[in-house]
Amino acid sequence: MSVRVGILGGTGAVGQRFVQLLDGHSEFELATITASENSAGKPYSEAAKWRVDSPIPDDVGDLTVRATEPEAVPDDLDLLFSSLPSGVAADVEPAFAEAGYVISSNSSNARMADDVPLVIPEVNHGHLDLIEVQRDERGWDGALVKNPNCSTIAMVPTLSTLDQFGLDRVHVATLQAVSGAGYSGVTSMEILDNVVPHIGGEEEKMETETRKLLGSFDGTGVDLHDVAVSASCNRVPTLDGHLENVWAETNRDVGPTDVEEAFRDAPTLDLPSAPDPLIEVFDDESRPQPRLDRTLGGGMAVAAGGVQDTPSGVQYNCLAHNTIRGAAGASLLNGELLAEDGWL
Ligand code: NAP
User: Fold this and answer.
1) What does the pLDDT look like over 291-329, one tens digit per residue?
2) pLDDT tens profile 168-214
3) Helix 256-264 crosses helix 150-162 at what angle (to 10 degrees)?
4) Catalytic status, residue 318
5) pLDDT in tens, 42-64
6) Which residue, 46, 84, 86, 196, could crosslink 108 as a Cys pair with Cβ 3.0–4.6 Å?
7) Please, are residues 79 and 104 in contact by the beta-carbon 8 Å criterion?
């Protein structure tokens, strides 16, 4: 099967990861890249300030970047990935969906909309059926599917395995890499020798998106999970990989051994980009660490360790690569699921 795909906003930090991950993909063929007016009309190799850790694939470097509007892209594309700034995506993505395109988007707009599936394939695969509700309500031939924010996605696969014990309350403190702010987001003067204890909107995203992802879908909508999530988000001077300290309180008594076992039993999927195992569990309490562990499972695995009992519930640390599992890889996996389930 060859699925022709495009990337909206393909020149930025996440867009470049899409290009890297799509190179040699077993099912998807990259045919089109769009970006802002500044880049449209230029060869991709000139428009993208390439910063990922492999060369630009030759066939992609020669692609002419197109404007980000439905009229400017070929109409035979089966799937679009989106890594646009959310303000731009809020206008543009519905226009593409209305024009018949299926979009697997990484941008934060509309993630909490009632008729938009917010999906991590290993966690809530069934929420994809919300597409039928979306198409009914909006009259779209296309569809809009979202993956969660990069810090939420590092934590929720672990929480999902703890829900069998009655997940009640979660506290999380994040240590987030600078690439999460995009190429123009954080200056070296701000972040070198420093930690910034605030990331605009991030805490609310972790608190709300987690409840939607863990919620139940009844065929018409998603009932948010009751879990109370409190997040404190920090930008730290690492390049890639968000590390998170999580305290999880459950209704049933659980110990570190139960938790580690639940993590090791996390479900995996038979999709090209799905890691196996989903959660890599470390016995060494000094792991996971961003530099050592962010590329586990090709950057798609979640790493966890340091599981211990505390008076505030079970505590552990988890980590995921923010521009792979936390962004481009997450949309790519949703795209693979859309193809597998026959939505394209
Ligand atoms: P970025 O590096 O700033 O890239 C933004 C992309 O959008 C570029 O291709 C840019 O094209 C294009 N663009 C900007 N303004 C546009 C406009 N008016 N019309 C059309 N295209 C436009 O941002 P990023 O870090 O890749 O983030 C992209 C999205 O992913 C954001 O919504 C972000 O919140 C989300 N996200 C990022 C991460 C992460 O770790 N970085 C993780 C999760 C989610 P030009 O090159 O031509 O300007």
Assistant:
1) 999 999 999 999 999 999 999 999 999 999 999 999 999
2) 999 999 999 998 887 777 888 899 999 999 999 999 999 999 999 99
3) 110
4) no
5) 999 999 999 888 999 999 999 99
6) 86
7) yes
What are residue 343's phi and psi, to 5 degrees?
A: -85, -10
Tokens 């938790």 correspond to 259
What structural domains and CATH numbers belong to the chain? 3-148+327-340 (3.40.50.720), 152-322 (3.30.360.10)
- pTM over 0.70, yes/no: yes
CB 36 within 8 A of CB 3: no
**Closest residue by CA, ligand 1 atom 34:** 107
- Sign of the dihedral defined by the CA atoms of residues 281, 282, 283, 286, in that order: negative
Protein residue with its CA nearest to atom 1 in ligand 1: 12
Distances (CA, A) of 138 to 114, 131, 135, 144: 12, 10, 5, 11
Residue 242 falls in the annotated catalytic set: yes
